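Ticket #4471: structure export looks truncated?
Reporter: QA, pipeline team
Priority: medium

Steps to reproduce: submit the single chain below to the structure queue and open the exported record.
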Amino acid sequence: MNLPSIGGRFRKDGQLICVGGDDASVKIFDVSSKTLLRTLRGHDNATHVCEFLTTQNLASFSDDKTVRLWDVSTEDEIQKFNEHKVIDLFSDFYNCKSIFLF
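Actual output as written to the record:
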């Protein structure tokens, strides 16, 4: 079954795009070859927004009320923020993006 993709964002260099989805995953595609490179799994509900923080790290926001930070190269979850209201997460992330950078 194909589920819709939600909230895609290009990496700053334009080479990759991350896309959230109703299947609770975040998929990372190579833009030039249009191939799926990685599938990040860990959320329990739809992932509406994902954003590259650096060339190797991204953040994903989900209806499971978590924000997860990922290492793109290893597919490892670096950190998980629990029990936040989704609206607050969007606001905090877009207004204070630098707090997530390492």
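Status: closed, not a bug. The export was complete when the record was re-opened. Leaving a note from the reviewer for reference: The chain has one domain: 5-94.
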